[in-house]
């Protein structure tokens, strides 16, 4: 993380509000009792379950909708973001193709005038910060939600494209390292469980696992 600080500490970073950078739209659910909206659907329609299963890049939804279900404003654009702003706050993902989502999500699409000054990959990493802001600033009523007008006023940094790309490269490598650690931890946990089960099987006191443990402790 010190490398990132070294990249930006001497650079003039422009700050813009989310409302300035993004077109913002709400998700919706087409009328469930109308089969014309759902039968043989061709467009992704994302729900929270899809995000939980797929992670931060959203390719295919479990449920799909038809062309007739799409409102006049059209589909959410490829490379735009879904952000959950009601109930379970802060989940987010990048759309791999033009899609829609239910009303739990707000869609944020980079405005045309910013497409060449801010990279989608940089934004995908920065959405972790936006997500944290949403979690910390959602209301405390029975039905939690984010005030979209306040979200629009949240400022985000826009360093040069070159710096954005360098930051993305660093964070991508860091993510790979974290995933490797998670896989190693999973292997170690499985190994621990295996030996724990064997070592605590007191009716099998002469098991090879116990002998291995005795040798290791000599």
From TrEMBL:
Which keywords does the record carry? Coiled coil, DNA-binding, Endonuclease, Hydrolase, Nuclease, Restriction system
Q: Which GO terms describe its molecular function?
A: DNA binding; endonuclease activity
- InterPro entries linked: Restrct_endonuc_typeI_TRD, Restrct_endonuc_typeI_TRD_sf, Type-I_RE_S_subunit
Q: Which domain of life is it from?
A: Bacteria
Single GO BP term: DNA restriction-modification system
**Residues of the Type I restriction modification DNA specificity domain:** 11-184
As recorded in UniProt, coiled-coil segments are 171-198
Note the CDD domains from the entry: RMtype1_S_HpyAXIII_TRD1-CR1_like
Q: Which family does it belong to?
A: Belongs to the type-I restriction system S methylase family.
How does this protein assemble? The methyltransferase is composed of M and S polypeptides.
Protein name listed in UniProt: Restriction endonuclease subunit S
């Amino acid at each position: 993380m010190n490398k990132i600080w070294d990249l930006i500490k001497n650079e003039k970073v422009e700050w813009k509000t989310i409302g300035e950078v993004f077109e913002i739209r709400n998700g919706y659910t087409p009328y469930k009792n109308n089969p014309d909206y759902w039968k043989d659907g061709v467009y992704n329609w994302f729900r929270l379950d899809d995000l939980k299963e797929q992670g931060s890049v959203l390719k295919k939804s479990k449920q799909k909708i038809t062309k007739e279900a799409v409102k006049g404003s059209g589909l959410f654009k490829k490379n735009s973001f879904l952000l959950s702003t009601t109930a379970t706050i802060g989940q987010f993902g990048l759309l791999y193709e033009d899609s829609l989502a239910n009303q739990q999500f707000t869609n944020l699409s980079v405005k045309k005038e910013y497409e060449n000054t801010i990279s989608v990959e940089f934004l995908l990493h920065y959405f972790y910060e936006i997500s944290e802001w949403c979690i910390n600033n959602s209301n405390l009523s029975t039905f939690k939600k984010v005030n979209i007008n306040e979200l629009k006023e949240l400022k985000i940094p826009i360093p040069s494209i070159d710096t954005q790309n360098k930051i993305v490269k660093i964070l991508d490598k860091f993510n790979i390292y974290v995933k490797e650690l998670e896989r190693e931890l999973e292997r170690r946990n499985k190994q621990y469980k295996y030996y724990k089960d064997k070592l605590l099987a007191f009716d099998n006191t002469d098991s090879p696992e116990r002998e291995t443990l005795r040798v290791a402790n000599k």
